[in-house]
Write a structure and sequence with these properties.
single chain; alpha+beta
């Protein structure tokens, strides 16, 4: 088992094929939710011993992806308390004065890629990573007050954003975002990357 700290609330766990067999992860892994939950807790307990990443308190969001070598990668995200969200959210919304949805017009002749993040820290870290390879990217950031997710709209596909817990959305997701979310930052990649830890 290899582990990588992405930030204080996110851990990446890499398992080989042999380790997957040890934890009983096979093709039928997701069929029995109770059994899958127990397996995930076993993995988190073992990871906590070597990393000190505390999974005993609070809620966690776990994403699992196959890796090229036949193993798998797990991204474990601690779900922040509402107060953490609201403090950072209010600051960003105040600073950016809620630009209008019409700002989306800059994407009209370009390809659109939409990524969803479960928290602001992940978005900030992703923006910093994108800055190294795609500094000229057109980008907009939206906030969903109901789910507390943040969405990043890009005109270029960004590699390996799953390392930051990003989920690539279908382009039809833009209709939900326009209807229910607040656009809080234009030129998000360059502006938000400076806040990343």
């Amino acid at each position: 088992m290899e582990t990588v700290f992405i930030n204080k609330d996110k851990l990446k766990i890499m398992l080989t094929c042999t380790e997957m067999a040890k934890y009983r992860i096979g093709d039928d892994f997701s069929r029995d939710k109770a059994e899958a939950d127990l397996i995930i807790w076993d993995i988190l307990d073992d990871a906590a011993v070597s990393t000190g990443f505390d999974t005993a308190k609070g809620s966690f969001y776990v994403q699992m992806y196959p890796s090229k070598d036949g193993g798998c990668e797990l991204f474990v995200t601690r779900i922040a308390a509402a107060s953490n969200y609201s403090e950072k959210t209010e600051h960003l919304l105040r600073e950016n004065k809620n630009p209008k949805i019409s700002d989306f017009g800059q994407f009209s002749e370009k390809k659109l890629y939409i990524y969803a993040f479960s928290d602001f820290e992940a978005l900030l870290s992703a923006c910093k990573a994108i800055c190294f390879t795609h500094r000229e990217t057109l980008s907009l950031a939206y906030y969903d007050k109901v789910s507390e997710k943040v969405f990043l709209f890009l005109d270029k596909e960004a590699d390996r954003l799953s390392e930051f817990g990003a989920v690539k959305c279908k382009n039809t997701e833009k209709y939900y975002v326009f209807e229910y979310c607040v656009l809080f930052c234009k030129d998000a990649v360059s502006k938000l990357s400076v806040f990343a830890l």
